[in-house]
Amino acid sequence: MIHQSEIHSILDDYDQKRITIATIGSHTALQILKGARDEGFKNMVICKEGTEDLYRQFGLADEVLTIKKYTQVLEKTFQERLIAQNAILIPHGSFVEYLSPIKIENELAVPMFGNRKVLGWESDRGKEREWMERAELKLPREFKDPKDIDRLVIVKFPGAKGGKGYILASNPYEFEQKHKELELSDKEKFTLQEYVIGTRFYPHYFYSPLKDRVELLSMDIRYESNIDGIARLSYILQDSHPEPSFVVTGNLPVVIRESLLPRVLEMGQKVIGTSRELFSPGVIGPFCIETVCTEDLEFIAFEISARIVAGTNLYINGSPYSQLLYQEPMSTGRRIAREIKEALKEQSLSEVIY
Length: 354
Ligand code: ATP
Known about the structure:
The structure is a single chain. The chain is α+β, with helices and mostly antiparallel strands. The protein contains 14 helices and 13 strands. α2 packs across α14 (332-345). The structure holds adenosine-5'-triphosphate. Adenosine-5'-triphosphate is lined by residues 140, 154, 156, 160-163, 193-196, 200, 222, 224, 246, 248, 290, 292, 302-303.
């Protein structure tokens, strides 16, 4: 892992009046670019060949760089170029996936918004569960042995990206059948997690170390294929439906019952408090807790994303919650740029960068 002091010494040489906010062209890049511009920063988008037209069309970027493959970002000369432009990189879901958490930790010397120590905690299912348990979140039950399956479980394979390739099973026999069909080796690791029935809520938080405050900026429900399609036909398909999959295809806006808001905020605060104990200084900036709210109005959490999530794209002009906090269009992308701006003003940029 590149040490924090190394990144901070690069940051010390930056011309603070000429900071460029940069990200990879995918996921939440449009929002990040607009947010940077709204806060008065120069911005840059790094696009894979063939995607640059989209970013040019919206006219939100001061500079559009084209690369042949994403890993080019890790090349020494490319990094030197970014550093020469006083670039601060904003990580997002695709950014982390394309470059890989390990390579970001060990090879990316360009200053990045947030705390890169979080990558190891959110990409390892065991460590992530430990974090959630310590934050006293309620979690779905997990079964160590398929023989113990006594209710509907979702089987999560490590390689399954965005819920593709997950299977459901209600008993050991069903699990064995489906597992056999997948023709996986016995060594392939999987997690057997109780499938929680309820309403999914994905609250989008922002932790500001400068204000020492957890803000609830917005919330979404992921729209997933084919499970959401099957739901529409459930009474016709009955037992003959295809194996459900959970591939995110879009996001739906949602607000939550106001009486549930205190608990939503409390969960965010606990996740931040625990992150400080586990990997100081903990999460910095945006994060999301993926939850299901049951009929008993209990939140069961099954994942933490410790970076900007794609559901925030619904709120490029702000959400009902961010409007109450800011009385101006405040997306998560803009909130990141605002934190960098405030940190520059207070001469504490290193507090929000690693
Ligand atoms: P991503 O990294 O994009 O968040 P992932 O591969 O980590 O995706 P999950 O987020 O764990 O996958 O799950 C994908 C989807 O599967 C969720 O959005 C949710 O709809 C469903 N899901 C996951 N775990 C559970 C659970 N325990 N109970 C009910 N539904 C679940």
